[in-house]
Design brief:
Blueprint (H helix, E strand, L loop, with lengths): L12 H14 L3 H15 L21 H16 L6 H12 L2
């Protein structure tokens, strides 16, 4: 058997339970999963997955009621009034520049 070391970590109980349920269903012991994670950190020379904030959820306008649509339009109007918008040509220029179009 390979030489091993102990690892102690504080984890939120709900996160631990959910992850262990999934690992159990996959037939992977927790220690093996942690070992795989550490090996991937070494191979990738960093965290082996992207860490970023999720994108804002896109609203499906066709699924909204008339009242919900009015509320969404009001939000957009308020963004314009508060200066949280950009001219379309500036946005398209940036896209062309970023993607070499």
């Amino acid at each position: 058997m390979a030489k091993t070391a102990n690892l102690y970590a504080r984890i939120e109980p709900e996160v631990k339970e959910q992850a262990e349920d999934i690992l159990t269903a996959l037939g992977i012991p927790v220690s093996s999963a942690i070992n795989m994670f550490y090996k991937q950190i070494i191979l990738q020379r960093g965290i082996p997955f992207e860490i970023k904030l999720p994108q804002a959820k896109v609203t499906d306008m066709s699924a909204l009621t008339a009242r919900e649509l009015d509320e969404e339009l009001e939000k957009g109007y308020q963004d314009v009034l508060d200066g949280r918008t950009k001219p379309a040509d500036a946005v398209f220029d940036k896209i062309r520049k970023d993607y070499g179009i």
